[in-house]
């Protein structure tokens, strides 16, 4: 893979996490498109069985099978996989022990149900195991099959436990195959080939959770990646106008004159519309102040930050490509 | 014709005060996708109920730090703490669920001391009782059952865990049942029942294959730990199941009101739809839908299209830059309002009889009781 001078050269596994409602799956999908741009092959993995990828790309539910779902700008393919722990277990048995039939019998008996209920750490090892296998996989030519793998991971509150599989199964399996498997997974996840990205909004709770999540991740020796600030509302209003609005001194008269000039309203009507619009400006200005504080707070994490615009019409396929473009121009892919 | 169309899209208003004022309402369950403000809604409902004379307790699971602080909660604590007293005898209590302690207490209540010790020190138990998925849902329901049985509060408001799916907690009791009835459990508990002989010797030919696979997959030591754990748990299984079933019935009882919480976004509204359908299937009483963080536009008489055209006009003439920027801002806002409206319309047309209340977006998160009170007022203003 030739270098293309992005912030994450050499990273093959991009783990994307975020608090619920921040658009984690959307950002993961856009990142996969951005990484695939220019003729690369990228796998987008989902692990919570929500079929979020299928919904974003407007596809029928994804099976447990790597299949091509999108073509990236200027060539390049995005494949997707919805990992099901049960199927991952069968894979694992077959791959390492050549036991497919025994695996089916285990499934029938509810062993997977059991294992995931009693020890969710097992479930995480199976799921991360499948993902890291795709990262390591090489084709017949000896080259890696995927240039990059993007994992739409569990939310921020669970991410460290989810990735810290060795720790999670340590109490259960000190030796034996599960331990070996989790060591293998851990080798990939803790390497410089992995980056864990956080998706947040410029709001207090998601920002706080992001900062907590980053601290927790670092403590566990896992590699923090970048911070994607999602749904940023942009405005051309000058700083001075916003400052005035916050202090209650927004120039409503000038606004009314502008409305008249634009032929939108006359006389008293223009004043009324200007008043209403000024209300919107004041609210926006107040939020801008708070957002500024949240940006400052995020800068403490000392990670690269990327800002993605709020899409007026919501996230559809076109919007996804727009976000991917934004990710590329900012150097995240 | 036009009127009929309009009324079809307008939902029935949700009367929150009627629900919290009804002494027959004993449990309110707030559920919905992650990140939609469930915990805030639960806390605001609790406070409003207390201010209107109820003795309410809010059971929260994993609240954001500042929201917890707004109710004076500083750590995980399985005991409800008094938050505030109100005129007319109303009181508000709140607690944060300590999942592990709740689980430990169930074990201690159902097993003799020796067996309880065996279970509590088993690595499988430790993994199970401190993990975040599944157990949290079950423990939240267990705690709800305990609070209800104690009868110390006349209203319990419960916030459901931040599951990957809003439906997880409904499935928890059933999953537990399936888990306990599974053939695998019976396989593992077989040695205890057969006087200590190996489970696998008792089994038919087909199971030899499974035994081999299990040993390969888990390793001999893990299998042994697992077997010890399951055998020890065997004794308390009956109690477990019974409690899970009781709690499930409690949720179906007329004194319970489910409040589905959503934000006006596609995923959250879709989850809300699933939830409404699921509650109906389970014959659980739905009170209505709360849509949080809804935006409005004070200048809504000016459409997005006219606003954008005027901005473009001013920009091309190079005049009134400030007005042009304000019009751009307004255009974005109108588009947002329209999109949020569309997302809600899907829900309303699919579930026209479900009462709805909208809570407008606030610029700041809730930090104190005054903030919660304000949310409570908005909740009651449908």
UniProtKB/TrEMBL annotation, chain A:
Alphabetically, the GO molecular function entries are:
ATP binding; ATP hydrolysis activity
Listed SUPFAM superfamilies: P-loop containing nucleoside triphosphate hydrolases (SSF52540)
Q: What domain of life is recorded for the organism?
A: Bacteria
Every ArsA/GET3 Anion-transporting ATPase-like domain range: 13-170
What is one Pfam family matched by this protein?
Answer: ArsA_ATPase
Against PANTHER family, the record matches this protein to: ARSENICAL PUMP-DRIVING ATPASE ARSENITE-TRANSLOCATING ATPASE, ATPASE RV3679-RELATED
Q: What is the name of the protein in this document?
A: AAA family ATPase
TrEMBL record, chain B:
Q: Which residues form the ArsA/GET3 Anion-transporting ATPase-like domain?
A: 25-300
Q: Which domain of life is it from?
A: Bacteria
Question: What InterPro entries does this protein's entry cite?
Answer: ArsA/GET3_ATPase-like (IPR025723), ATPase_ArsA/GET3 (IPR016300), P-loop_NTPase (IPR027417)
Query: Which terms does the record give in the GO molecular function aspect?
Result: ATP binding; ATP hydrolysis activity
* Entry-linked Gene3D superfamilies: P-loop containing nucleotide triphosphate hydrolases
Q: Which PANTHER family match?
A: ANION TRANSPORTER ATPASE-RELATED, ARSENICAL PUMP-DRIVING ATPASE ARSENITE-TRANSLOCATING ATPASE
Entry protein name: ArsA family ATPase
